[in-house]
Design goal:
The complex is a heterodimer of chains A (268) and B (335). Helices cover 31% and strands 24% of the residues of chain A. Chain A has 268 residues and is of the alpha/beta class. In chain A, helix 5 runs parallel beside helix 6. The radius of gyration of chain A is 19 Å and the shape is globular. Chain B has one domain: ABC transporter involved in vitamin B12 uptake, BtuC (Orthogonal Bundle), CATH 1.10.3470.10. In chain B, helix 3 packs antiparallel against helix 11, helix 5 packs antiparallel against helix 11 and helix 12 packs across helix 13. The longest helix of chain B is centred in the N-terminal third of the chain and has 35 residues. Chain B starts with 5 loop residues before the first helix and ends in a 6-residue tail after the last helix.
């Protein structure tokens, strides 16, 4: 399934444009990271792709058909959305929560049956969270909740999974765990679009990158094209470095000692 | 806490309700044997001549009242559970969107205009519906579709209706009209007849059936608007249907019984403790518990003392402490 984002622009009613003319393709097995400063419209972009907000211009095509001409339910069969930490009001069990992922494929008055619970269990097993299945969703940790949300996204059986800052509010160990899960999902053929504030995550995932700047323009490219020191230093106004570390067998993005003039623009 | 097997519990509630109906039909100032009640039902159904006095008491007084208690209790409880699911807030109740206070204003207007009981009920019904519409419209004018804005609109409309009711009471004749308004506000089904019950039953049953069918979708709504939308649910439509159904249930109930507080808040809570938050289980359980609770309360108020105690007083006396107990019991989960 091919999903194309074409010339999307968005503005809340009568206000300035949040972003303009954003285009890229979401391909199976590829990860796209959306970077950008706070308020640049990263989450808004995900909402537009998921058909939850209507863009003022442009469209999202699923296999060539514009989502503007599709029902929410049809879009939900192709694209699932993992919101930022959700605080539920009622203590549903994890299994009951995950099975709601089947909703887009069920009739209006239908209730989940054995086949739907089987789909939910498959998703739960895929994320290795069987031990959480019967626990109340309100009583698990933030890291576990993120895994549960991703399980529900998988139960939706989509082509593409959108994740809104999946590592926010998580401790370091859980951040890495979520990144591993995401990389595993890409290997299984899901197309992934996620927002993040951490450029090092982009390197870890070897992802494609879309950077939304303060003017609402997006620069899109591969890891190698975008993850250059000069570009990122300018973007974050920070004296960060990109270094290849042999012991880690990867390239990292990190800042030097805080006394070495972080926020390099101070020198001007 | 481990939840009950909801199927067994639902079956148990049905049995309890049936037994309680029979008992309620039997006891009272004119006491009957439950067997006589069943026989009277049988002869009536077959069109055979039976005991005239017994039939009069049963079909003109007790059965209308039992039906009213069962349906009002069920409707108020279910509408509470629906509002709580839709507004993903276990602390809201049918009074929330101004339904009850709007119905009071409607009833008070009818009383001031000197209309009879039937018209008072019609006015109460439309007063309740009008208040919900105002609340929903206000939320729309505020250009915000989020739940919290709707809740706030409901509070605003409730406050407004409360003040209008105050004005109406102030200008009411203290000898006659004022007492009618106050008595109506306290809630009672003492004077209800079959015609009144049958007038609202189709509406109530329709709303109940629709909501039982949609109960699983209300689960998804209770996770939040964004999540429901991302699962392909037409949030505006589903919420609209749910609010209309819940408000019809409340307004229908209030129109025949006056305002009866606490049921819509306490009964769904009790259900949630016993069978969990899944609305496919909770809605039927809440419905039955509400019916049982109000029938029990009404029978007590009818039998216990020589003067009938208004229902709202009893539901408050039982409901308020019980609700405090629930909050104390689950204090860890409300932060």
């Amino acid at each position: 399934m091919k999903i194309e984002v074409r010339n999307l622009s968005f503005a809340y009613s009568n206000n300035r444009m949040i972003f303009t003319d954003i285009s890229f393709d979401i391909e199976p097995g590829k990860i796209i990271c959306i970077l950008g400063p706070n308020g640049a419209g990263k989450s808004t972009l995900l909402n537009c792709i998921a058909n939850m907000l209507v863009p003022v211009a442009g469209e999202v095509l699923i296999d060539g058909v514009s989502t503007r001409r599709m029902q929410l339910r049809e879009v939900a069969r192709a694209i699932s959305y993992v919101p930022q930490i959700v605080i539920p009001a009622f203590d549903f069990s994890v299994l009951e929560y995950v099975v709601t992922g089947c909703a887009p494929r069920m009739g209006t008055f239908e209730r989940p049956k054995a086949e739907h619970y089987e789909i939910a269990w498959q998703a739960i097993r895929l994320l290795r969270i069987e031990h959480l299945a019967e626990k109340p969703y309100t009583e698990i940790s933030g890291g576990e909740r993120q895994q549960v949300c991703i399980a529900r996204a998988i139960a939706q059986q989509p082509a593409v999974i959108l994740l809104d800052e999946p590592t926010a509010h998580l401790d370091y160990g859980n951040q890495i765990k979520v990144l591993k899960t995401i990389s595993d999902l890409a290997r299984r053929g899901y197309g992934i679009v996620m927002t993040t504030h951490n450029p090092d995550h982009v390197l870890l995932l070897n992802a494609q990158i879309g950077v939304i700047d303060r003017q609402g323009q997006m620069t899109f490219g591969s890891c190698a094209e975008i993850m250059r020191e000069d570009y990122l230093q300018n973007l974050y106004e920070t004296n960060l470095r990109i270094l290849s570390i042999e012991e880690l067998d990867r390239t990292i993005c990190a800042v030097p000692n805080l006394n070495l003039g972080v926020g390099g623009s101070n020198d001007d | 806490m481990k939840h009950l097997d909801s199927r067994k519990y639902t079956a148990l509630l049905i049995v309890i309700l049936a037994v309680l109906c029979l008992l309620a039909a039997s006891i009272g100032r004119y006491s009957m044997n439950p067997a006589d009640v069943l026989r009277a039902l049988y002869t009536k159904a077959k069109g055979i001549e039976g005991n005239r006095t017994m039939e009069n008491v049963l079909f003109l007084v007790r059965i209308p009242r039992i039906l009213a208690a069962v349906f009002v209790g069920a409707a108020l409880s279910l509408s509470g559970a629906i509002y709580q699911g839709i507004f993903k807030n276990p602390l809201v109740s049918p009074d929330l969107l101004g339904v009850s206070s709007g119905a009071c204003v409607g009833a008070a207007v009818a009383i001031l205009l000197g209309f009879n009981l039937a018209w008072t009920q019609v006015f109460a019904f439309f007063g309740g519906i009008m208040a919900v519409n105002l609340a929903v419209m206000l939320a729309r004018v505020l250009r915000n579709t989020s739940n919290i804005v709707l809740v706030l609109s409901g509070i605003i409309i409730s406050g407004l209706m409360g003040s209008i009711l105050g004005v109406l009471k102030f200008i009411a004749d203290p000898e006659t009209e004022l007492s009618s308004i106050v008595y109506w506000q306290m809630g009672s089904i003492a004077g209800v007849n079959l015609k009144q019950v049958f007038a609202v039953m189709p509406l109530m049953i329709t709303a109940m059936v629709i909501m039982l069918l949609l109960s699983w979708r209300i689960n998804i709504m209770s996770f939040g608007e964004q999540e429901a939308k991302s699962l392909g649910i037409n949030v505006v439509l589903l919420r609209g249907i749910a609010i209309i159904c819940a408000s019809l249930l409340t307004a229908s109930a209030v129109s025949i019984s006056g305002t009866i507080g606490w049921i819509g808040l306490v009964i769904p809570h009790l259900g949630r403790i016993l069978v969990g938050p899944d609305n496919t289980k909770l809605f039927p359980v809440t419905l039955l518990q509400g019916a049982i609770f109000l029938l029990l309360i009404d029978t007590i108020s009818r039998v216990a003392t020589s003067v009938e105690i208004p229902l709202s007083i009893l539901t408050g006396l039982i409901g308020a402490p019980f609700y405090a107990y629930i909050l104390w019991e689950r204090k860890t989960k409300l932060t």
